[in-house]
Structure formats: C-alpha cells, structure tokens
Amino acid sequence: MRRFEEMNDFKTFTEISSRCYPGMKLNSKEDKERYQDHREKMNQEDNIRHIALYENTDMVGGYVEYQHVLNLYQQKIPTAGIGTVAVDLPYKKQGHAKAIIQRFIEDAREEERSLVQLYPFQPAFYRKMGFGLGPALHTFRFHPSQLPPFPTVDPVSVLNENDKEEVKKCYKSWANQTHGACQKANYEFKFLGLEDYHAAGFKRKGQIEGYLVYQFEQQAGDHFLQNDLYVIDFITISQEAYQSLIHYLHIQKDQVRSIKMPTFNEQFSFLLQDPCHTDEELLYRIYHKTSEQGHGLMYRIVDVPLFMKSLESHSFGDETVKIGWKISDTFMDEENYYVYQYTKGHPSLVEEKADIDIHIGIAEFSSLMMGSVTLEGLINVGYARTVDNQHFEKANRLFQNPTKPQCWTFF
User: Fold this and answer.
1) Domain boundaries along the sequence of the chain
2) 133: β partners
3) For residue 235, how many C-alpha atoms fall within 13 Å in the half-sphere facing its CB?
4) Tell me: the pLDDT tens digits for 5-51?
5) 137-295 sits in which CATH class?
6) For residue 218, what pLDDT band results from cuts at 50, 70 and 90?
7) Which residue among 137, 181, 182, 332 has its CA within the 20 to 30 Å range from the CA of 168?
C-alpha cells in the first residue's frame, strides 16, 4: 500500500539519497550526518516541505517541495518547485516516480499554485511528465581583458554578512522587474558568510544597486598563480552598477586566467572585444565558439484557467484573435479545451467559437506561455498543430517575440 507522509525519518532519506545520487558523495558516516543535519535544518524553513513515500511500512522514496513567489510578466503568483526526487534502487520501475510527481501536481492544484517548476536530472524524462523546457543558459569563458573598462564609474565594495539586508533588497528589486524570477528566502543569501565565496557590490548612497558573487577555481596541474574566476551571481538594477561590476572583472586581468560567466543574455558576446571562448574551437566551418549552452529549469502549468487569469493584464502582442487551445496532458490523463480571446494581446476566457484551434501538449503549452519558445517554432516541428486558415498568421505573430524568463533560484 503506497502512501505519502510529512517526513520525520531523515536518516533513512539520507541513505536513500546516497544511493540515488552517488554524485553527492555521501560515502562516510560524517558525510551522511552532515547531510541529515542539513535536511532537518532546511525542513524548518517556511517554504520547504520534505515528503516521504512509503510502501507498507518501508520508506521507499521521497522528495522536497519548495514554495516560491514568481514574477509572471510583472504579476506575482504562488508556484511550487520539486527537488531531490528519490526512489530507492530496489523499488525503481514500479511507478513510484510517477506517483511522486502526480502527488506534487495535485498538491499544487489544491493550494492554487497554477505553475510548478523543477530542475531535471534528465529533461526527456520530465518532458514525458508534461514539463516544458525553460530558456537556454549561456556560459561564456574569456580573459578579463576582453571586457570593456569603465574607469569613470564608482568602484565596487567588498560585501560581507553586514550587507545582507541591502543585498536582499537589491535582489528583490531585480526580481520585481524580471519575468520568471522567484523571490528568495533568507537562507539563499548564506554565500555572504561562506569562506570560499566572494562578493562585491556597487553602492549608491548606502544602497546596493548590484552585486557579484564568485569563486576561484583551479584546473588539475595548476600552480598557485593560475586561477579561474567562476561567477555565481551577477545581479544589477542600474546601468551604473552593471558597468561598475564589469569594470571590476576587467581589472582582474593580471591575476585571473579566465572568467566563466553564466547568463541568459544571448547578446553578451557583443560586450567582449574578442567574443571567442578560451577553448578556441571552431564549431562549424568558420564559426567560432563563443559560449556553451544548456537547458535547466522546466515549467509545467497545472491549472490553465488560473494561470491564464494571472495573465489578463499582460499583452503577448498587438494582435486580436480568438484561439481555441486543445491541450493534451497524457501524464495526468486529461484533455482540455479552452477558448481565449486575445484583445491586443490580452487573454480572457470566453465561451465562444474560436477563430482558430491549436492542438498542443501541456509541456509545449507551458514553454510557450512562459516565453521560452515561439508558436512558429512549435508548429514547424509538429509539437503544435493547426489548420492553416486566415487567422493563423495573427496567432503566429502573437507569440513571435516572447519575453524569456530568467531565474537564478536553485533547488
């Protein structure tokens, strides 16, 4: 008999996690004790729940649920995230993972959280469960001298735990103006007190308008003078802060071999004097490698009417058209049909005949609504289907220039 309970046996969950995620390297008694203590401590946070899965009297798996407030096109909505999904090795392929995700979705619906998120161990696995890809993340790697200098801007300051409240305010301001961003809990700013993390910030009249978090790394065989700088966070809410932090990275050119910069900004390469990656590889004919790209965060709309109601003040474009969405959700065994009137891009649910019907899966619909992909892109590869009528171009133009989400919350 399968059942879910609020977790209280963190020792067993630690043992399960050590087998499901050997990369955590929970190999010693001390490692496992530290991880167990961490889980018990995190369980005290208001936005975190640990859920255990039992088969009769045995814990066979579990997961961690995170509650977030997300900026959805300048509207704040409650969402849920799931992480550390674990099913003990002897119990794999018995439908437990499916049961975990279905329970997670059902809980989100009951709590009126119309959108859920996760970071996949394997995107294809969760795509079958109805999660759609989020935006691509680019990581650039370059010598600091390739960044432009901004010598006239005010310099940055080294940040420490005394700056925590101002750092939190800066991040909150950024999140309030950025689609896809989640508000962060207090524990997510612990980097200010960690010995192997460094932080610098731009201040104006005592208020932080941008901050940079980074670590120094070395490659195998490096001597003590060879170091790479890995950017962890780069948050700014003003042009001056952006330029000051870029200048700070630029002046590390005599000490740092390379900078690794993650960003959702596809145009970051235009900032660099030489945009070439330090690998100096050619990708195709005479196209130089400038960055590496990957997908991480995935989205799933679990309550379409509630989610779309949050979008009533948002305009996807200038078009006016009535679209009938035929949404297939094979994972939850659901088929739904909704007609939305887009008036100058603003959606509203109507009980009228659609100008055009579009057949789409919930994963692709989630990616489309979040701005991660265009309708044309989905139509071209068959992930969305429609009859090419006189309203097709209107529907196509409506989702032609999406605002892509940005999220620097990890769970």
Assistant:
1) 2-113, 137-295, 300-398
2) 298
3) 28
4) 999 999 999 999 999 999 999 999 999 999 999 999 999 999 999 99
5) alpha beta
6) confident
7) 137
| Average confidence (pLDDT) over 166-179 | 98
Spatial CA neighbour of 346 closest among 381, 321, 325, 368: 321
Please state whether the predicted TM-score (pTM) of the whole model is above 0.85. Answer: yes
Q: Which CATH class is domain 300-398?
A: alpha beta
Q: Please, which residues bridge with residue 115 across strands?
A: 79, 301
Chain length of the chain: 411
- Helix (H), strand (E) at residue 214: strand 207-217
Q: What is the DSSP letter of 182?
A: B
DSSP 313-370: T--S-S--EEEEEEEEETTTTEEEEEEEEEETTEEEEESS--SEEEEEEHHHHHHHHH
pLDDT of 353? 96
Q: Which CATH superfamily is domain 2-113 in?
A: Gcn5-related N-acetyltransferase (GNAT) (3.40.630.30)
Instruction: Indicate if the alpha-carbon torsion angle 87, 49, 135, 171 is positive or negative.
Output: negative
Identical topology for domains 2-113 and 300-398? no
Write out the two tokens for 118: 């996760």
For 304-340, write each residue's pLDDT tens digit.
Answer: 999 999 999 999 999 999 999 999 999 999 999 999 9
DSSP 238: S
pLDDT for the residue numbered 220: 82
CB 301 within 8 A of CB 365: yes
